[in-house]
């Protein structure tokens, strides 16, 4: 009987550490060649590097996971910002909705307590070919705002089906000072709110927490009109902390 308990213990230990060996991790993360056609030329190189960081520091079962692009990655240690353990940063600068879809196996395997998603602004940059920085080359055959919202819904469905116990929150896109993005941001956000009715996720209206009377991201919260500065992150944390504490 003692031997039987020992065997069961080793099996359970193996289950709890599964995914942290190189053999298993290869199945949980996209390969270096598994990129989105909508990644710009810089992200084509950066995305695999960030995925390798995830491989070397895998999630734990039951974590709270922030999924997104540079705005999420730029928050760095979200645990320290919120004063809440087990928040993990899965932001990748330059990432798009298709890029998130390609890296969801890690999420569905580790069954997070909750995921918080903020993605889509780089898709819109792709749609407009990043008019203020043509050095970053995007595929000109690009998605529409409807495509972006559909992908966000698809991300939520994949997580829900692979990890039914995970609570899913989708943040609306932040406002920006880029005039050519304003209307598309409004459209994507309207579709995010509409698609919430499908029951796969709850919407967190980050946009309305930041937008000013001109329909822009106020200068005091941003370092470049798109990305947040320290004060912007402080405002974000102040708004969302009650939500996370209530999980």
What does it look like?
This protein is an alpha/beta fold and 247 residues long. The protein is 48% helix and 9% strand. The protein has helices at residues 2-17, 22-28, 41-56, 70-73, 78-82, 97-101, 105-110, 121-127, 145-162, 182-195, 206-210, 230-245; strands at 64-68, 87-91, 114-118, 167-171, 202-204. The protein has a 5-stranded parallel β-sheet. The longest helix has 18 residues, at 145-162.
Reconstruct the topology from this structure.
Elements: H1 2-17, H2 22-28, H3 41-56, E1 64-68, H4 70-73, H5 78-82, E2 87-91, H6 97-101, H7 105-110, E3 114-118, H8 121-127, H9 145-162, E4 167-171, H10 182-195, E5 202-204, H11 206-210, H12 230-245
Parallel strand pairs: 1-2, 1-3, 3-4, 4-5
Helix pairs in contact: 9-10
| Oligomerization | single chain
Specify the helix fraction band. Answer: 40-55%
Number of structurally distinct domains: 1
What string gives the helices and strands in order?
HHHEHHEHHEHHEHEHH
Low-pLDDT sequence parts: 2-23
Q: CATH superfamily name?
A: SGNH hydrolase
Overall 3D form: globular
- Number of E-state strands: 5
Question: What is the radius of gyration?
Answer: 19 Å
CATH class descriptor name: Alpha Beta
Overall pLDDT, averaged? 88
What would you say the CATH architecture is? Answer: 3-Layer(aba) Sandwich
CATH fold call: Rossmann fold
Record the strand order, biggest sheet: 2-1-3-4-5
What is the distance, rounded to the nearest whole angstrom, between the alpha carbons of the first and last residues? 40 Å
Briefly note the structural class of the backbone.
Answer: alpha/beta
Please count the helical segments: 12
